[in-house]
Design goal:
This protein is α/β, with parallel strands linked by helices. It is built from eight helices and nine strands.
Length: 253
């Protein structure tokens, strides 16, 4: 699996005109789906996707219907699925050009078996169905340290599902391995909250080292969609995700 070329901005030798690329992409009439839109990264990604107006159709695939008050969300399609019986919902994955996967849980919340089901089984089956349904670009939010050979459960499962999805041979497959996500979660994760507090000074002094705001991850995934790539599988580590997420930031301000 290839990563960005060294010494470049997330693998691009010249700073790309991200705004021109977005304008060109809008003319392609592409559609996308988002898995995990109720999670911290997923809901920020959904907002960025809608603001960007890159896609003519946006579909959320999830186990429950989400409610939105802002009119910006009124055209979002929601497909409700039973993740334990995903084969029965193959139609939900058909007809999308781009698939964003931000699906995940924790061992503390779901237990060992539950974590493996969500972060491996659900993610892999969703990728298989989206590939069969015509998706050509699959973007996976993974995690820093993902390693299929690890003796630790979390990085091992993350690494395994990365590798197994690569074997599906998407036309383009983009993996994002962000560090510790800096956000205020709605759900309680005491250890993660403590880690964010302890690492806040580190994030200030060394912003790309081990932490990253969820907004940057979401923007990086969206920017990646419009950037041309010659690689079928591309891997973005935390620093790469920072660079990709900040493309065009000065002009936007």
């Amino acid at each position: 699996m290839d990563g960005p070329d060294p010494g470049t901005a997330a693998g691009h030798r010249m700073p790309p005109d991200i705004f021109k690329l977005r304008e060109m992409y809008r003319t392609l009439n592409k559609s996308c789906f988002i898995l995990g839109a109720s999670g911290e990264t997923g809901k920020v990604l959904l907002k960025e996707v809608l603001k960007s107006r890159l896609f003519s159709k946006v579909t959320l695939i999830g186990r429950r219907k989400l409610t939105f008050e802002n009119a910006m969300y009124e055209d979002v399609i929601q497909e409700l699925v039973d993740f334990e019986k995903l084969d029965d919902h193959a139609s939900a994955f058909q007809g999308h050009d781009v698939g964003f996967c931000c699906l995940g849980t924790t061992r503390g919340k779901a237990g060992v078996e539950g974590f493996i089901r969500v972060d491996h089984d659900y993610v892999l089956k969703s990728a298989q169905l989206s590939k069969a349904g015509g998706c050509t670009h699959f973007l996976l939010q993974s995690s820093k340290g993902a390693d299929a050979t690890s003796s630790m459960l979390y990085p091992k499962i993350k690494g395994q599902v990365e590798a197994e999805i690569e074997e599906l041979n998407f036309y383009r497959y983009s993996i994002f391995r962000p560090g510790i996500l800096m956000c205020d979660r709605e759900e309680s994760r005491p250890m993660e909250w403590m880690a964010r507090k302890v690492l806040a000074p580190v994030a200030y002094m060394f912003p790309t080292a081990i932490t990253i705001p969820v907004t940057v991850v979401a923007k990086a995934m969206l920017n990646n969609v419009v950037l041309p790539s010659e690689k079928k599988a591309e891997l973005f580590h935390n620093k790469d995700v920072h660079e990709l997420g900040h493309l065009g930031e000065t002009k936007e301000k």
